Amino acid sequence: MTFTRRRFLKASAAGFGAAVLSFGLTGCSLNDDDDETTKQIPVSFDHGVASGDPLADSLIIWTRITPLENVTSVNVVWQASTDANFTTISHDGETQISDATDFTLKVDLQGLDANTTYYYRFISNGKTSPTGAGKTLPTDNIEQVKFAVVSCANYPAGYFHVYGEIAKQTDLDAVLHLGDYIYEYGNTGYATEDAAELGRLLPDDNSDEIISLADYRKRYAHYRKDDNLQAAHSHCAFITVWDDHEITNDTWRSGAENHNDGEGEFSERKMHALQAYFEWMPIRNVADKERIYRRFEFGNLVSLHMLDTRVLARDEQVNYADFDLTSSQGQTDFVAAISSPTRALLGNEQLTWLTDGLTTATTQWQVLGQQVLMTKMHLPFEILQLLMNIQVTQASGADPSALLAQANTLFSELAQIKGRILAGDPTVTSEQRARVETTAPYNLDAWDGYAYEREVILGTAIAAQKNLVVLAGDTHNSWAGQLVTDASNPVSAKAAAGVEFATSSVSSPGLENYLALNTQSSEAVAQIEQVIALLINDLAYNNLVERGYLTVTFTQQQALAQWHYVSSVKTADYTLLNERQNALSVQAGSPTLQMA
Fold it and tell me: Which residues are in the Phospholipase D N-terminal domain (predicted)?
């Protein structure tokens, strides 16, 4: 068989979200051979454009063609330029895409200049896409790198104003999306109670929980019609990882909390989800689609290590219900379980890759882009037991009001005891001290449920004398924490190893919903935030109410984190909550959080 250029490009574009390589100018024409597919058919670009996975000399660009007739393939041209008017084209080419990739196309632009913004567009059957922009990575000595950090966008839960605000940022080097880009639930699932009123219902042909490849593809297609999401993607290159909801809630290596009897084999569902992810996201292809951990070097300033804490190696989450937390033996068994060296979150392969990278890096900042909180979020056992009762009550459909009121009282009572201890009050009894100092993690889906690998990472950062910043999403609330080693850490016990900055959500509700907080009372909100910061030893900042995103700016001297919040995701009109914006920083060589 003789391969024409068109047939070669068609073959290279087929498969599991495959990308076409583009090395420069080709002088392409849509009519360079006699394929019947050159017939003009009406198409549209309903899902915008995107770029991602920037390197110093390459960039992924993406689009999706919507054929307006029943066809199996369409032709597409791409163009890239260093000016927005495309006066001079640096790269162009053409290929044929088909329903094998859901009519999505990724092009890997090669041979680009470092630290340069490239504009790109696509043309198909007389239609031209919107123009997108993406920036390649810098090399050598640089003064600043700035990221926007975002996660947890639930379409039915509210408007995507946060993406619109990110699109207004003029000095970003990349957008880091830390997962839960989509949610798997249907119109009656999690956080959908306002969807009809907001006009955010999922379409009829995708209104149930998604399981099949067609389901996942349709869900991405619906999300990507959102104007604010399209604006963010066209504005800046995204660097992404998945969390659980790209597959289903609380995913681990071989299963998930929200994969139930009658929903088929989990492994099949997982591969459907990953295929759709690689088709619809501007991520560079890898041979094994479960191995998306990768590294991005921003000159001499930042090494960004993007991790997978979900699919590749995660062991099943420990369950509180398996332990008697009211007894000393039960508490001992629980701590031993979550600290076991055999429990994997990253797995040996990824952990070795990360620790080797941290040890050998020569950049000023080592940044982990990943999904779940690494800070030790330990609460007193009394509170944990009550929170578990609240969860059981809510799951049963019963009214948890009495328990919630009890929780508010208990939070305040224990915070008062903790305050007296910190103030050196000699009248604090041993029983009172035990109430606040006998603690355990509240979220076993986070690093707290996989403590051994966390200690390896923190010990490595200390031994290698690296400036470590961890970025997280997942919880729907904002946090900043001090990353401190355990007393048993063989490298350095009870030592500060780095800091963590966690972003709020785009639209998913957070602890304010779970704890039924009176969000109309700024005083009540401030009080519970202060109480939680007091009770959790390593926590420096939290926002339990607002939706938003995070920016982190790195210089040779410091890393500056700034949280940005919108007034509401439940109304079409909104404002920025400037009074709720907060900033924290950490200085190079001194891994201690401080107010900026």
Answer: 47-136
